[in-house]
Write a structure and sequence with these properties.
The structure is a homodimer.
Chain A lengths: L17 H7 L2 H5 L16 H5 L7 H14 L10 E2 L14 H11 L11 H12 L16 H14 L10 E4 L1 H13 L8 E7 L4 H9 L2 E6 L10 H11 L4 E8 L11 H14 L2 E5 L16 H7 L2 H4 L4 E6 L13 E6 L3 H12 L6 H11 L9 H27 L4 E2 L8 E2 L2 E2 L3 H9 L4 H13 L1 E2 L1 E2 L12 E4 L4 H21 L2
Parallel strand pairs in A: 1-12, 3-4, 3-5, 5-6, 6-7
Antiparallel strand pairs in A: 2-8, 7-8, 9-11, 10-14, 13-14
Helix pairs in contact in A: 4-18, 5-6, 5-15, 7-15, 8-9, 16-19, 17-18, 18-19
Chain lengths: 516, 516
């Protein structure tokens, strides 16, 4: 590490000439072409956990898509006229219209002068007045309580009770959040402790939504992969959970199990029986359950039904319902509303130790509060227009149009891939994604490796360059060694989705031929 | 640690009867009265860094204030009729009105049907249309790019250039955030690394805003305290920086220096000369600078002026401006707008290594994006009505009323304390707070210690119980050993602020007598 400085001077500074300082700097820093020798914060010196973080949904492929869009705008000739974004579950970016009532109430809260405007329906005005009365200074510009506005937490609790057939929900167990991501990371933060072999391990499905792996990397926790069964429509197999848990106990302390239902990126809907088995497993193995249920409104397949972990837990009786620790997450970014930009969600915690729950309350207070505009919109999602309200009919109609269109797109997607040789796609039972498996010729795999790319990244980049279609390689979500996938959303407008599916199949056929 | 299990069964589970499991659990868990023996997540097993987090601004004193408000509502007799909240810089909660133009544009973006409403001014409509065109699908319900909407980053850059007399600002160096807190924590996250004596140390002013200490606790970084000079109007003394830095180098690796200007909780405005000295110090000692400048619009004292660190850095010449790493933070929660509920802010990073800046971009992408409603409002703050625009006059008038009222309250506050024996208060030159030093009789200090409370917490709790006034003890911000303070905001409406100040002085006199 070079020569140590001799001694501090009178004012206590280590006086070393700056030229010498550079000589005694560790070699990695001085020799790195990117790093200016004097920088404090370099790739070498920065937080190593942050460096490990990966988030494919907004990774290099999306950066390239943005670039291509700019090139198109500048008139650069491409083999396509527009980039179609199938990379992210962002419904309104793909043209989905917001629910009118939600935006009316939000506009009234934003600018209460409008409460005198006869063009706004009465129920929207009443709702806005009720919400404003619950805000500090009757303004959405005031901070709220850190776990969220109390009235809205109460509305969430009633919504959960209604959804779960009357099983009670205590508003004190409801924490509003800046999107579901925020709440998920907060719970993971509480769970992480220990060093070396006693480090907290968290079980994640593979394929998974990369928020989870990113958060665990940042928190320096151990990711324990359990594989979903692709041959069985991405079902969760408890035997697989047991196997991976046993192995993980050799090198970490497994403490939590994440489930994403309906699945992201895999689009399956878990059966009730399977949820029971998972809960029994968590009880038996003393694991904290994280149930990511943000797609609970997005169920399309005949015979599929959403069962909340909370409801199943309570229906399994007090042996489970009084002991299994559960955090369940919801969001306004998905469902039929797709209000991603508002960044709002909530979690309910069950059987959390009161002293830990106090720590959770303290922890969320440091960030003051989730965005109040998002809390307001969340309230509308959990406290909807009722039969007889002036806005009821329009609300139901708008909601129905979104959900039935999504169901149609889900069917269209799985049908299209069923007819494509070399592409295998499970039914899109729920959520907003298909995760097809693609066969890639050995020569393409070699070529990708020669270029230092994952083979499915190689495929997706070529797809983007030649067709303008932006989807995310399966390697960003995790997949069985030797298999290749991509995730695409079913969100583009029907006519664009049809083109996308057609182009994708054609491109895959051409790609296969080219590298055979 | 008790008996180990014998062996796994065929399915790989360690089969131990649950009763026995409880016996072999570490004693700490079984004996804790609070913890249910079977819980995974307990006060003992949770993340120890989270346990260390403290955040006084929303701590126990505020919880008690909320309780008192509820009791008053229920008709419980108290020696006061309302709780006056002086604990948090939440202007609109204290009755400050939002800027009309900001809310008009936001309402138009929220519910674009209103673009046809003749009651909205044309410039508001134009601004809304410009912003909507920059949103995915022309909707604020779509995710934005993770560092924020590009158009708004450009507007921020122009705002900074204008503020700093033309010094260039690259929009690529601007990152929008979920309030300034979010950006501050993100930069600290990048900076933290090492173990033991190589652990990152971060220099914080004392008194400080407890977001900083909370973030460092959570990240397990080392907090290095430098004391502001209360006898010299809370000035920052570079000799003190040198002294503390030298000491800190014995036990950690100091890598960053935080400055809050104007000061929170101390309300001082830093002189240009002092900023130059700090920059020179950071250059000399190779420290990354974090400049918290969220109160840049809140300057009240004659002769005080806001100087941005960026501007001073560049005016000191290339030796500094090409090497000192700086992140500067701004927010829409303070200033004249006080839009806390929207959770929006931005940071500009200067001289950050490009590879690290890529890591920063990746890191913020995991949380997808800051709330778009907040980004929209931030755009209005940095891109205001101009002379000739229909909304210009009303905007200027509303802004002026807020700022001149705040200046009046700042003077009122320092005057009131100047006349109170046993209370010493520096001039409130800027920000939104006074941080008076209070003499507490030795018997009160003893009594507090007997009850396990910080003496100023003891004082503030008694103040709350007897007068309904809610202020935060100095111990929540840090203070010189043996001195006692509280932080109060100057935000209550004038008539309430007068009552608050009068009651506070009277209570302190009575308290002093009681414990003498």
């Amino acid at each position: 590490m070079g020569l140590p400085p001799k001694a501090p001077d009178q004012s206590g500074n280590w006086k070393i000439p700056r030229a010498l300082q550079q000589q005694v700097r560790p070699p990695g820093m001085a020799e790195n072409g990117l790093a200016r020798p004097d920088r404090v914060l370099t790739l070498e010196s920065m937080n190593p956990c942050v460096k490990k973080v990966e988030y494919a949904v907004r990774g290099p492929i999306v950066a390239r898509a943005v670039q291509l869009e700019k090139e198109l705008q500048q008139g650069v000739k491409k083999p396509f006229t527009e980039v179609i974004r199938g990379n992210i579950g962002d419904a309104q970016a793909m043209g989905q219209k917001p629910i009118t009532f939600f935006r009316q109430v939000s506009a009234l809260c934003m600018y209460p002068e409008l409460l005198g405007d006869p063009n706004f329906p009465e129920d929207a005005k009443q709702k806005a007045q009720r919400l404003l009365a619950a805000c500090g200074g009757r303004s959405i510009g005031a901070y709220s309580a850190s776990p969220g506005i109390e009235l809205i937490r109460q509305d969430v609790a009633r919504f959960i009770e209604h959804r779960d057939g009357g099983i009670p929900c205590n508003p004190d167990n409801v924490f509003l959040s800046t999107g579901a991501s925020d709440a998920i990371v907060t719970v993971l933060k509480l769970l992480v402790s220990g060093e070396g072999r006693s480090r907290t391990g968290v079980m994640l499905p593979i394929p998974q939504y990369p928020l989870y792996s990113a958060a665990l990397a940042e928190l320096n926790a151990v990711q324990i992969n359990y594989y979903l069964d692709e041959e069985n429509c991405w079902a969760l197999d408890v035997g697989e959970l047991k196997r991976t848990l046993r192995q993980a106990r050799d090198h970490c302390q497994p403490r939590a199990l994440c489930i994403i239902n309906p699945g992201n990126p895999t689009g399956q809907v878990q059966s009730r029986r399977c949820i029971e088995e998972v809960i029994h497993f968590a009880w038996e193995e003393r694991l904290f359950l994280l149930a990511d249920e943000v797609y609970q409104d997005n169920i399309y397949a005949e015979g599929s039904q959403f069962h909340s972990f909370k409801k199943v837990l309570f229906e399994m009786g007090p042996k489970y319902s009084e002991s299994v620790e559960l955090a369940s997450f919801h969001s306004i970014s998905k469902g039929y509303m797709g209000e991603c930009g508002f960044r709002a969600g909530y979690m309910e915690v069950i059987n959390m130790e009161p002293a830990v729950q106090q720590q959770l309350t303290k922890l969320v207070s440091v960030r003051l509060c989730p965005p109040v505009t998002g809390q307001i919109l969340l309230d509308m999602v959990v406290n909807r227009p009722q039969p007889g309200d002036p806005s009821y009919q329009q609300f139901c109609q708008e909601k129905e149009v979104v959900l039935s269109t999504l169901a149609k797109k889900a069917r269209l997607t799985q049908e299209a891939f069923r007819q494509s040789p070399g592409i295998h796609c499970n039914p899109v039972q729920g959520a907003m994604y298909a995760f097809p498996r693609i066969q890639l010729p050995p020569r393409a795999v070699q070529e990708a490796k020669a270029q230092g790319q994952a083979p499915d990244m190689f495929f997706c980049l070529k797809l983007l360059e030649e067709t303008g279609i932006c989807v995310v390689p399966g390697s960003g979500f995790g997949q069985k060694e030797g298999t290749f996938h991509f995730r695409m959303t079913i969100l583009p407008p029907l006519e664009k989705l049809e083109i996308l599916l057609q182009k994708l199949s054609q491109f895959h056929a051409k790609f296969t031929q080219e590298y055979s």
